[in-house]
Design goal:
- This protein is of the alpha+beta class.
- Helix content is 56%, strand content 11%.
- Strands 1, 2, 3, 4, 5, 6, 7 and 8 form an eight-stranded mixed sheet that branches.
- It starts with 6 loop residues before the first helix and ends with a helix.
Length: 356
């Protein structure tokens, strides 16, 4: 299902989202109870199986789509659905192509999509539903109310997962200051982060379908997942022993291959080169310090890189004196004192938050 929301098909869903002129035209056809067969694209493959009709090449408007749909033939539009090229066309796809549809209009639509790869929109006169066909993909447009219900349910679930993740991040931070982190705890926090990001992806898909009606859902989503991806990337940067891949590449790989039913801490540990069996998860690991140092105000990323390069681990940075910090390129005495005091305050705050 997620594949539908990627690549060209995502573009088609955006093209047909509520509030767009194409969707308004489709809604007009539905209300008139006339039905329609619309092809978006005029490739040579399509033109070979098209005959009859009349060439109009006019700008698309909802009213024109509504009027032209009163005729029995197909409507052929250009690739970005900005112009209506041909009306009342007869389509003759290969009858040997497989089809699971029973109605003539939908059977033709499915076979045209299979044969040409173009987007074909079938509006059912009897069932009052809109079905999209493109290649092997079939997708039925859903009504706004049902999508909003699903989106709001997903937002509630996301908020619960995010709250748990926040507590886990606080706990991980406290353990990092004590240098008592195990691979298991790192992988568990990343696993929870991935689950939050996966739910967010699902909600993003709903937002695509909602079009202009999805603005409030988008605002809530952005508020909930703020900094989740950034924190996950910094944790990967802190602990990964995979030198040939960036944190972004590793996280992207985790999200793409993550399976909630089978992906566990060992799965993540393997990708981070922290171990290959469950026994490796109990081994102690140390943070490099990127995540904690990023939380300090007015510390540029190049300075953080210099700190980690010089000391190697967060625990070594914590033990460093102001004079030793001052020796790092880009850090003067004032900044060294700020780093020292800032890390101390952060440690105290994390301890208080974790105990509450």
């Amino acid at each position: 299902m997620d594949e539908i929301y990627k690549g060209n098909f995502r573009r088609y869903l955006e093209m047909l989202a509520p509030g767009t002129v194409f969707r308004i035209g489709i809604e007009n056809v539905l209300q008139a109870n006339t039905g329609a067969l619309i092809v978006v694209g005029d490739s040579p493959e399509l033109m070979k199986i098209s005959s009859g009709g009349f060439y109009i090449n006019c700008e698309f408007t909802p009213a024109r789509l509504y009027e032209l749909a009163k005729m029995d033939g197909a409507i052929i539009m250009d690739r970005d659905a900005s112009r209506i090229l041909i009306a009342n066309a007869q389509l003759d796809p290969d009858p040997n192509l497989p089809s699971n549809e029973t109605g003539i209009r939908h059977r033709i639509a499915e076979r045209v999509a299979l044969q040409t790869g173009e987007l074909v929109v079938a509006v059912s006169q009897r069932r009052r539903v809109v079905t999209l066909y493109q290649g092997n993909t079939t997708f039925r447009l859903r009504d706004l109310a049902s999508i909003l219900v699903k989106a709001n349910q997903a937002l509630q679930t996301l908020e619960k997962y995010k709250n748990v993740l926040v507590r886990e991040l606080q706990r991980l931070g406290g353990l990092e200051f004590e240098d008592m982190v195990t691979a298991s705890e790192v992988c568990e926090v990343i696993r929870r982060s991935i689950k939050v990001l996966k739910i967010a992806q699902e909600i993003e898909n709903y937002i695509v379908e909602l079009g202009t009606e999805g603005r409030l859902v988008k605002m809530q989503l952005d508020e909930i997942i703020a900094n989740v991806e950034k924190e996950a990337l910094l944790i990967i940067q802190d602990y990964s022993n995979t030198g040939d891949k960036s944190p972004e590449e590793l996280l992207d790989n985790m999200i793409r291959t993550f399976d909630e039913d089978v992906s566990d801490a060992v799965f993540i540990a393997k990708l981070l080169s922290l171990g290959t069996t469950s026994s490796h998860l109990e081994q102690q690991v140390s943070a490099r310090g990127y995540r904690m140092l990023q939380k300090l105000p007015r510390i540029p990323s190049p300075v953080i890189d210099n700190l980690v390069e010089r000391f190697g681990l967060l625990s070594h940075i914590l033990r460093a004196s102001i004079e030793e910090l001052d020796e790092v390129e880009g850090i003067g005495e004032v900044r060294a004192r700020s780093i020292k005091n800032g890390l101390k305050r952060m440690q105290e705050q994390l301890l208080l938050e974790y105990m509450v």
